[in-house]
Every structure is written in C-alpha cells, then in structure tokens.
Amino acid sequence: MKKINKFLFILVAICLVTSVHAQVDRTKAPAAGPAPKVQLGDYDTFTLKNGMKVLVVENHNLPKVSFNLQLIIDPVLEGDKSGYVSIAGSLLESGTSTKTSQEIAEEIDFIGARLGSHSEGAYASGLSKYKDQILALMADVVLTPSFPADEFDKLIKQMNSGIQADKTSPKSIAKNVRRKVMYGDAHPYGDVMTEATLANITLDDCKSYYANYFKPNVAVLAIVGDITTKEAKKLVKKYFGKWESGKVPAHVYEMPAKIEGKRVVLANKDAAPQSTVQVVYPINLKKGTADVIPVSVMDAMLGRGFAGLLMKNLREDKAYTYGAYSSISADQLVGDFYAGAEVKANVTDSAFIEIAKEMNHIRNEKMTEDHFNMTKATLAGDFARALESPSTIASFALAIERYNLPADYYATYLEKLDKVTLEDVQAVAKKYVDPDNAIYLVVGDKKLKEKLAKLSSNNVVEEYDGEGQIVKEDPNAIPEGLTANIVVENYIKAIGGREKLESIKDMSVKGEMKMGPMSINVEQAYKNNKMFAMSMVMNGQVLQAIKYNGASAKVMAQGQENQANEEQLKGFKMQAHMFAELDLEGLGFSSTLVGTEKVDGKKTFKLEVVGADGITKYDFYCATTGLKLKTVAQQNGMSVTMLYNDYKDVDGLKFPFTTLTKMGPQEMPLTITSLELNKDIKDELFN
Amino acid sequence: MMIRKLFLSLLFVSIFAIGSFAQTGKIKFEEYDLANGLHVILQQDHTTPNIVISVMYHVGSKNESPELTGFAHFFEHLMFEGTENIPRHQYDKYVSRAGGELNANTSTDRTYYYELLPSNQLALGMWLESERMMHAKVEAIGIKTQKDVVIQEKKQRYDNPPYGTILPQTLSHAYEKHPYRWTPIGDEEHIRNAKDEDFLNFYKEFYVPNNAVLTVCGDFKTEEAKQLVNDYFAAIPKGTKEIYRPSIVEPVKTKEVRDTVFDNIQLPAVIQAYHIPAIGTPDFYAVSMLGKLLTDGKSSRMNKTLVEERQLALQMMAMPMPNEDPGLSLAFGIPNMGVDPMDLENAMEEQFSLVRKELITEREFKKLQNKVENELVSSNASIERRAENLATAYTYYKSTERANQELDNYLAVTREDIKRVANKYFVPENRVVLYYLPKVK
Predict the structure, then answer these.
(1) How far is residue A558 from each of residues A522, A562, A599, A663, measured CA to CA in Å?
(2) Which UniProt keywords apply (chain A) (predicted)?
(3) pLDDT in tens, B36-88
(4) Closest to A33 (Cβ–Cβ): which among B120, B231, B304?
(5) So what's the pLDDT on residue A613?
(6) What is the domain-level CATH number for residue B425?
(7) A16 touches chain B (CB under 8 A)
(8) Which one, A184, A627, B33, B44, has least CB within 10 Å?
(9) Residue B135: in which H helix or E strand, if any?
(10) Contact A107, A141 (CB under 8 A)
C-alpha cells in the first residue's frame, strides 16, 4: 500500500495591508492576519488482482460513506445510434440476475441511500452503518446486470419524452448545435440523441457495450468517508474480487478541424424574449499540460464572476444580461473555448461585438496587476475552500489516475498557481483566444438573421435546427403573416414615412444617363401629384420632352411638338404621382406577395402589381432594409428591368441615386446629380 | 448581485431548509444581542482555515407593497453596488483580492448575504457586512443599471425556459390576499417604474441591525470575533421605522381553483398546489414526509406506479415550500409522450386518496425516517450550509437551537399524522390545479 504524505502549503493570499488596528477606521479595508496554512488530506490506494484500482479517503467527521466507480475508457462514437451508451449505463440499475429494478430501488431507498449507474460506472452513498449493504448492491448492479427488455422499452420511451420536454429549451438547443458544428459527425463529442437515433437502438447494442467496456482492469473505485482502508479492502475484495478482467477496445479520434473565419450559426426560437449568444470553438488543450493553470487564470480574468471582463462590460456597464461568462476546458481528446450570455433580444448583435471586443482585449492588451493578483487569490481561495469536502481529495486522486497526471499535481497546485505571471497570461491568451476564427452561435428569433450576417466573415448565417442539423431554406419561403400591404408599408417607412412623403408638394430631379458611349441629361419635375414634366437632352439637342399640366400635355420628339392623345394622358396622370406606393389601391393597382428572390445577393420580397390597365409589373423589396431594389416591367412588348441602388438621404427621405435600366442587351445607368424638394416650382414649367 | 438563488425557484430540488446532526453530536454555538438589536451567532469549526460571515435580513417579498413588488430581491443587487466608504463596483473586488467569494439569495421571507473567506480575513468580512448595513449607497446610477439586469434575470429564469412560469402562475392562482401571490423577482413594471426614493425608504425600514442576524462560522477565535463585531457593528444605529410584517391571513379555501396555461412547450405538465401550514409547525414535518412518500426515490409511490409501472409520467415531484407563513405543497408531473394530462392527474389523485384512506405501512414509514436521517447528516456538513441553517432557525423561530432539533421534529411524526395531514390538506377543495399545454402555433 502506498501512502501519500501530507503536504503543507502556505496559502498565497494577496492581502491588502492598509490600516493599523487601533481605533477602527471605517474608511479603509482592515488588514489581513497572517496567511493560514492549507493542508491537503491523505488518501490510500490499493489494487485488486483483477486490476481494479481502489482509492480510499478516510474522513470520520460525518457518519457517511460514498463509493464512486469510474471506468477509464475512450469515448465511443455512437453516430446514428446516439443515446445507446447512456441507455446501457442506466440499464445496469434496472435489474440484475437476482433482483428486479423495483427490488433494487426498494432496498436502496429503505436505508435512505442513493445508487445510480451510468455509462462509465456507478455511484452510491449513504450512512456508514449501511456500507456493506450499499457496496453489495452496487457490485450487484455493476457485475450482474440482466438488461430486461421491458426496462429497455421504458427507457426509450422516457428518453423520447425527455427530448420533447427539452425541445424549446434554449440551453439544450445550443448544446446540440454546438456539438454538431464544433465536432461534427466523426467525433463522439458530436453525438446528439434524437428521436431518429433512439429508433435505431437495440437492446443488444446495450448488452455488447456493457460486455466490451465494464472490466475491472479499467476501473477505479474511489471510497470517501467514515470507513478505514482495512474495512474498505475487505469489502471491495468481497464484492469485486471475482470480477473478471478482459481486453477493452481503444479508440482514437482525429482532432476536429479548426474553425476558419467567423461563422454565424443560428437556431430559431420563435419570438424568444432573450437570445442565447455563445462564441465557441474547439481548442487543443489537454489536462495536465503546462498551459492549463495559466489558462485557468486567463479564463477567470476574461469571464469568471464580477471581476471578469465579460460581466463588467455586458452586465454592469451595458445591462444587456443577467450574467456573461467564459469557460475554457482542457480535455484529452479536444478542449473547448466558450464565452456567452443570455441577452436582450434586441442587442443580440451588439452582445457579440462586445464579447469579441473583450476577447481581443485580453488577447492584445496587458491586464492590470490588480486584476491579475485578485484572480490568482480567488483561485487559491477556491482550492482551499474545496478541501473542506473530503470528496475533493478523492476527485484529485481520480484525476491523477484518469489523466496520468504526476502524483504531486494537486499537492503542488498552489505553488504552480503562484508562479504564473502576467506575461504567461497574455501568452496563453494569444494562443487560445481567437474571436476571428470562431463560431458565433445564437439561439433566438430567426428575424435577427439578416442583422447577424454582418458579423460573419462571408456574410452568411448558417441556420440549424434544435437537433443540430443544418436547415435548408426554401428560397421561395415567405415569412408567416407577411402580406403585400405590409411589404409596401415597410417600404414607405424605410424611405421616410407616410407623413413626410405626403408633405412633399413638388420635386425636381436632374441626372445623367449613359447609353453606350452617349450621355443624356435627364430632367424631371412633379407638382402636387398632378403635374409632370420631363426632358431628355443630348449634346444640346432635345431627344424627348413632356409637359403635363394635369389636363393636357405636350409631347416633343425629334423637333416635333404634338398634343398628347387620350391613351398618353392616362399614362401621364399616373406618372404624375411622385410616390404611387402611398395609395396603390386608390390608383387602381392590385398587388400580391408572390415569393422571395435574391437581388444582388440580398433577399427580397417579390410583389406582383397589376395596374388598372391590366398591365403587370414586379417590384422587389429588400427583406432587411425594406427598400425597393428592383422593378421588372413590360414596355412595348419588351421586358425592362430597373435596379435601384445608392439610396441617399434628401431632407429626411431616401431616394435611389443610381438606377440601372436593362432592356434586352442594353444597360442604361442613370445617376442623379441633383434632387430638390418643395422648392415651389412654378406652374408654367408644366404648360 | 451574483448567481442569485431565488429560493422559490428551486422547484426540482428537495428542500431541507434546516437541519443538523453530526457524528460529534449537536452543533455548538454561542449567541448574543448587541444594544442596537443585532443578533450575533458564532460557531467555531477549525477543520479548514476558512470562515463564512453572513447577514440574514428578515425581509423577503412578502414584506413588499403589492404596488412595488420585487424590492427585496432588487436589494440583493443593490447591496453590491457600494457604500459610503466603498466606491461603486469595488465591494466584490475586496473579497476577490482576499481570495474569497460572496453571494446572496432572496426568498419570500428573508434575504441572505454572505462572504466565504480565508480565516485571516475575518476583519474584512466584518467591515464589508457592517458597511452595507450602516450606509449602503442607494443611488440613481446603480438603480438604473440593476433595473435592466433584474429584468434580464427574470427573462432568463422565468420567461424564456420551458415551464419557467409555473411558479409565478401557481402562486397567483393560489393566493388572493397574502403577499405570497407574487414571486420574489416581482413585477417587471413595478421594477421599471420604482423611484429611487422608494428604494431608499425600503432600505431604511428593513436593512437595520434590529432586523438582522450576523453569523460567523469556521476557523476563528471567539474573543477576536467578539471584538470585531463590537468594533464594526455596535455603532450602527437601531432602525427607527416600524418594520412592516404582513398579518394578512389567506382565507380558508373552500373550492378548487383550476386553470390552463398555454406555453411554449412540447409536453404538457400537470401542477397541483395544496395549501399547508408554515414551516416549523408539527404538521409541516408530516407534510414533508408525505412528499417523500410520494416522490423521493425510485421506489416512492408516485415514481413506482406512475413513472415505472404505468409509464404515465416522465417525471414526478411533490414537496412543500419552506415558507414562514402558511405556504403550499406542490405536486408536479410531466406526462409521457402521448399521455393525456387528465389521465396523469387522475392517477395522482388516486395516490393522494390512498394516503387519505390507509395508514402507510410500517416498512414505508421506517424508510421515510431513514431517508430523513441520511439527508440531515449531510445538511450541516459545510460551514456555508451550517451558517445559513443557524441564521434561518433564529430568523424564523427566534431560536437558533431549533437547528439542532430537526431530526427530533421529524421523528415525532407518526404514521397517523401522515394520514391525518393527507385528509386535512391534500383534498380537492384546498388546491390549485394547473394544466400547462403547448401553445398552438
């Protein structure tokens, strides 16, 4: 038997020595006393002939004892049978060669104890006067499970119900998406249990999992509490001595790919009052390596509690959230970086920007000595406080076994923590904190999508469902409840609002249109939505001009002037409306929302607009900004497309300053050079 | 300010509010009052070089005005903002620099603030707690920020997660008059509209030494502790306002209250809430054992029949809420996929009716006693838990020693008592029944 000696350490307390203790001075924090000694408890260890390792932490403060059996095995990739490993684990306590599930439960409940089995072992605890009974039951469950079919069916049913109950939980949605996006299908950490994977699981899958992995030579049993090593040895031999050893499959997995660029990933939760925002990515950081302790200091400075940069910014400064945290975990297969919060829905994108800002902050700037020392002191305090519970020593011992750590890893923890420097912190921040190559994961309302696209390196928001599967969007999908009227109203809002538009009495526009090598000066004028004039001039020569005064019109073309006919007048009357969208119905138009389409990479809503004359045109309004981006109309039997670009503000209203007209092979860009509103245009101009 | 545990939101955790039992016997402590009315409890434990310093204020959401709810909890946030001598956002830094931790939590009946520190920082803990009792800064800038934070806390806890509104819905259906009809988090509008002055008045009324218990547990020397208590707390003036303690008695229920809530969930839930006596009363212990009989452990009655045998439910839970005034015992179930919630409710009712009709068996009774014993053994294991248990006993019963009598109180319950309380409280006319159903999209 190996006996680990006691280790004594001075708690490295960073004290504030400020005042002298004579008359109490309230204006200053009192001085600390001498730093206390922190003492790590002992543990014993022995190994059975079959290879099972046993750790014993004696502690007689309370009449309690606990047994924790842990298998040290590689994670198993479950794939399309995700969930079978944990079902196998739960089945152990659901019946043995001599007892039914209810008999086991009744025995353990009767003595007020707890027993639970899982895919990598079992746990039991209770009053020490029942230790023999508790360990006997635990051994029965671990060594002779009977895998009853009805218990299997029941578990499948409960797992299915559990999936349903969790379906709207933002936490569980985020977890599933994270697993799939960060680790993928080829890694066990990417396994997600769904109704579909549950349907693939058979009882035999569970039996063979047990047969393959539950072996004493890969098991460690940690015993804590009111028991002596001698008693423990006797009991463990009695109940686990006959457990037969065997070869256990090993698995190696490729390191998941590094995240390249900023990927914005969204899972929809309709009308969510908050968004779950997380910046996550896999990292290569293994337990026990030299970086782990400096990383824990850096992680705490970034996002632990109130001293953390994230909380300070997102909660105490901006009040976006109740709490913002980071966590960087080391793992033998693949570690992970996490920084996140639950935030007000309307600041979802800002929250991401602030999280990235703090990540850059710790990466690029040196933190203050005060913050650094404070963080180290807190971590040392955590360590000292954790030692109050005897199970802490057991978990240290178990970690040493499990991750092959040096035997004095925890005994020298405080020394190692003390040696970390501010430079070390910055070095590991540079190495592990990278907001430019990360997943920006949101669980929130889908309507945030367009806004979030800007955060992504490629302007794309990848949408996933609650099970972590990518959602293939129907390009013609129209959001529920959206109508043509709403699209038009949104457009009116986007260009300045109904009230402002209605206050416009007259408007004059000057521009230049290119037609191949030729350049044409175009002028238009409108008044009271009743009068309209336009002219097109090239090299001083009038190509075409129209003057419409609300009753009659002159049309000039190629040096000739004519009075407009009835047909033409009807057209001019319509054209005299500066903003026809204000009253489409009144003007005889009927419009219908017929689908969505991409215009220059932007999603738009497509409206079919039919005039009183029966002529159809299509208008395309941007789904994000509401602005009109394109019109497709018919002119003399030809299809004409107009693309509106470069919206600019004039007296609080927005106008497209360039319009590209496409007609057959021709492209005619029009650029506005001047646009004036309410300048009191004289009636003469229209006569 | 931190990870606040609103007591009532611990819906799925079995609650043993007060308890004590250790290998070495009872908890030994010393207690006394200062002239300003502050009650002091000192409890030594030299196992590790750590201490906990806490103050329990006898104010919870039930002391609030119905027009200004959420105040006690709001103070939990405000009390970290700063004091006359501690600048804004520095309060927690002192604790962090010392290697400590701090937090607070609020229930319907009391608010609890504490610091966990290395044993050489006893004076620091005294200074911090005395500062906020003496002159916390209740000022506009902190109030403004914390209003937004608290509203986000409400959304995160209650509005966004599935089944998150069960507790507020149950309470508002169960109480007409008593202030338990609102939850400690309060009403969003009340918080938003509250004036700075309202907060200041609340502070002056409730956060006074004569409404508080100071508890120190862990590795310290008694004489030194007493000296420090005197140095830091004796000068704090006694409160001058009359402390509001509601004497409102909820009318006896004569008719079942039944309602349906449509929520953003996939599986329905069935909730029953029965009116029961206050914590610490003999019947409360019997009610608590009845809860264990039904849902504590896989072999408990509801778990055995509804979850395991008939597979009607995914999960069942029954437990009393530890309220200072007469409270509620909740019974809660999520039906398995495809199970009609009404079938589950009928099956729950069968179980209650069985306890009303027949004495529980001797073996079941022994099992309940064993369970209680096992749980009480752990309930005082850490100085953190012990400090809270001692402070709670004094606050509710004005007897710290009650923390040592918990097991005796449970062991005084008989099989007949369990049947009697089943007939007295667990009857249809004394309950609220809520169905949570998925919202139709």
Answers:
(1) 16, 11, 37, 22
(2) Signal
(3) 999 999 999 999 999 999 999 999 999 999 999 999 999 989 999 999 999 99
(4) B120
(5) 80
(6) 3.30.830.10
(7) yes
(8) B33
(9) helix B122-135
(10) no
Nearest-CA residue of chain B relative to A341? B156
- How would you list the strands of the sheet with B313-320, edge to edge? B257-263, B431-438, B269-276, B327-335, B313-320
- Tokens 């600019």 correspond to A648
pLDDT value at position A212?
A: 98
Query: What is residue A664's predicted lDDT score, i.e. its pLDDT?
Result: 75
Binning chain B into helix, strand and coil, the percentages to the nearest 5 are: 45, 20, 35
Say how many Å lie between the first and final Cα of chain A, rounded: 112
Nearest to B266 among A168, A273, A323 (CB): A168
> Which amino acid, B120?
N
Helix, strand or coil, per DSSP, at residue B111: strand
Establish if A105 touches chain B: CB-CB under 8 angstroms. yes
**A106 touching B (Cβ < 8 Å):** yes
Q: Which of A127, A194, A316, A379 to mutate to test the interface with B (most CBs of B within 10 A)?
A: A316
Considering only the beta carbons, identify the residue of A37, A162, A374 that sits closest to B96. Answer: A374
Residue B15, pLDDT score: 33
- CATH 3.30.830.10 residue spans of chain A: 41-251, 255-473
Cα–Cα distance between A220 and A34 in angstroms, integer?
Answer: 40
Residues 6+ apart with CB under 8 A from A36: A11, B49, B118, B119, B120, B219
State whether residue B283 is helix, strand or coil.
helix
Please indicate whether, in this complex, the C-beta atoms of A26 and B85 are within 8 angstroms of each other. yes
The pLDDT, as a whole number, for residue B25 is 59
Tokens standing for residue A288: 């026990």
* B228 plus B272 within the same structural domain: no
The token pair at A658 is 């360039």
CA atoms within 13 A on the CB side of A563: 4
Apex B287 CA angle, B285 and B291, nearest 5: 115
CATH architecture under which domain A41-251 falls? 2-Layer Sandwich (3.30)
- CATH fold label, A484-686: outer membrane lipoprotein receptor (LolB), chain A (2.50.20)
What 3-state class would DSSP assign to B184?
coil
Neighbouring C-beta atoms of residue A541, cutoff 10 Å? 9
The pTM of this model reads: 0.77
Same domain, B195 and B112: yes
**Tokens in use for B376?**
């009480």
Residue B103's Cβ-side half-sphere holds a number of Cα atoms within 13 Å equal to 12
Residues of chain A with pLDDT under 70: 1-23, 473-476, 637
Long-range CB contacts for residues A105-109, cutoff 8 Å, separation at least 24: A105/B297, A105/B298, A105/B299, A105/B304, A106/B299, A107/A133, A107/A137, A108/A134, A108/A137, A108/B297, A108/B299, A109/B296, A109/B297, A109/B298, A109/B299, A109/B300, A109/B367, A109/B371
pLDDT of residue A318: 93
Q: Check CB contact under 8 Å for A164 and B337.
A: yes
A294: exposed, middle or buried (Cβ count in 10 Å: 0-12, 13-18, 19+): buried
Is B1 part of a structural domain of the chain? no
Q: If you compute the radius of gyration of chain A from its CA atoms, what whole number of angstroms results?
A: 37
**DSSP states of A454-513:** TTSTTS-EEEE-TTSPBP---TT---TT--HHHHHHHHHHHTT-HHHHHT--EEEEEEEE
pLDDT on residue A479: 78
pLDDT digits (tens, 9 = 90+) for B160-200: 888 889 999 999 999 999 999 999 999 999 999 999 999 99
> Looking at the partner chain, which of A24, A110, A370 has a beta carbon nearest the beta carbon of B231?
A24
Taking a contact as any Cβ pair under 8 Å apart, which residues of chain A between 374 and 433 contact chain B? Answer: 374-375, 377-378, 380-382, 384-385, 387-389
- Does A112 lie at the interface with B, CB-CB under 8 angstroms? yes
Q: Which residues of A touch B266 (CB under 8 A)?
A: 164-165, 167-168
Strand partners, A439: A263, A280
Positions of chain B with pLDDT lower than 50, given as ranges:
1-24
Number of domains in chain B: 2
